[in-house]
Specification:
Largest sheet: 3 strands, antiparallel
Radius of gyration: 19 Å
Strand order of the largest sheet: 1-2-5
Helix content: 40-55%
Number of strands: 5
Oligomer: single chain
CATH architecture of the largest domain: Irregular
Strand content: 25-35%
Number of helices: 3
CATH topology of the largest domain: HU Protein, Chain A
Distance between the termini: 23 Å
Number of domains: 2
Shape: elongated
CATH class of the largest domain: Few Secondary Structures
Length: about 100
């Protein structure tokens, strides 16, 4: 099951003991800061979690899968995520 934005809001509200409205505002602000930072072309590093990086894809040849026609795909920017060593260790811990 995926953790949704609403799930994050609920968990923050419960764990921090604040109302849902303040939890919602906090989550929205954090996401807004991350989005605006990535849109400006800067990376976002969250210590102990990972790094979101903006990478550029160059123009390349592609094809339409429905018709098989070749076409030129325009250059674009993408976001990649690279997890931290601490996150990897936490995910790979053996449960005893």
């Amino acid at each position: 099951m995926a953790l949704t934005k609403d799930g994050m809001i609920s968990m923050i509200s419960e764990v921090a003991g604040i109302d849902r409205k303040k939890s919602n505002e906090s989550v929205e602000k954090i996401l807004e800061i991350i989005k605006s930072t990535l849109e400006s072309g800067e990376d976002v590093l969250i210590s102990g979690f990972g790094k979101f990086s903006v990478n550029e894809k160059h123009e390349r040849m592609g094809r339409n899968p429905a018709t098989g026609d070749s076409l030129m795909l325009p250059p674009r920017k993408i976001v990649t995520f690279r997890y931290s060593g601490k996150l990897r260790e936490g995910m790979n811990k053996k449960k005893r």
